[in-house]
Write a structure and sequence with these properties.
The complex is a heterodimer of chains A (116) and B (112). Chain A has 116 residues and is mostly beta strands. In chain A, 0% of the residues lie in helices and 59% in strands. The chains are: A mainly beta (116), B mainly beta (112).
Chain lengths: 116, 112
């Protein structure tokens, strides 16, 4: 149980384009989903908290117009990196909370984004 | 606050030995702690958790110890195997909408 998937697993795009990443909880309903960003050899940095049916709460320093988050259902949240630039290249990971444990976050496999 | 490290501490152990990975957490109000394992190119994988009303919890080959007095958490891995090689993160939560605050991580390398 508690499986979270992400799609795509990796993406290469040109500078200026937008990229959408999907996060799905496969076997439980996720009341809350989280989006993280991770640079090589570093810890996870929380970008935003997403509750189903409401606006996401962004962490300080994260541009909400740059990183659009939609949590339209209890099993799907999307992160759209708008007008991507090379500095947006990173490993993006989502997590979902729900099911039997309302505290434990279960993580997706991550999405590697490379912006050329 | 959230941890952003410039480099990861590393721990190198011989296969079959026990490993101890340490973590100092930041918020004395945190009441739930989790250890995650992250292999290269993958998302973090839940290993074991512990609540603040406990000081020890055991799983399969893993034990988590919590010392609230000094805000210290440790993960013990018994009979470490090559498949245990990964980066291990501790995470704490308590209030603030249940956000996890991650430690900087420790890279465990198991020598065969």
């Amino acid at each position: 149980g508690a499986v979270v998937s992400q799609h795509p697993s990796w993406v290469i795009c040109k500078s200026g384009t937008s990229v959408k990443i999907e996060c799905r909880s496969l076997d439980f309903q996720a009341t809350t989903m989280f989006w993280y960003r991770q640079f090589p050899k570093q810890s996870l940095m929380l970008m935003a908290t997403s509750n189903e049916g409401s606006k996401a709460t962004y962490e300080q320093g994260v541009e909400k117009d740059k990183f659009l988050i939609n949590h339209a259902s209890l099993t799907l949240s999307t992160l759209t990196v708008t007008s991507a630039h090379p500095e947006d290249s990173s490993f993006y990971i989502c997590s979902a909370r729900g099911g039997e444990s309302q505290e434990t976050q279960y993580f997706g496999p991550g999405t590697r984004l490379l912006v050329l | 606050g959230e941890s952003v490290g410039l480099h990861l501490p590393t721990l190198s152990v011989q296969e079959g030995d026990n490993s101890i990975i340490n973590c100092a957490y930041s918020n004395s109000a945190s009441d739930y702690f989790i250890w995650y394992k992250q292999e290269s190119g993958k998302g973090p994988q839940f290993i074991i958790d512990i609540r603040s009303n406990m000081d020890k919890r055991q799983g399969q080959r893993v034990t988590v110890l919590l010392n609230k007095t000094v805000k210290h958490l440790s993960l013990q891995i018994a009979a470490t195997q090559p498949g245990d090689s990964a980066v291990y993160f501790c995470a704490e939560t308590g209030g603030q909408g249940g956000k996890l605050i991650f430690g900087q991580g420790t890279e465990l390398s198991v020598k065969p």
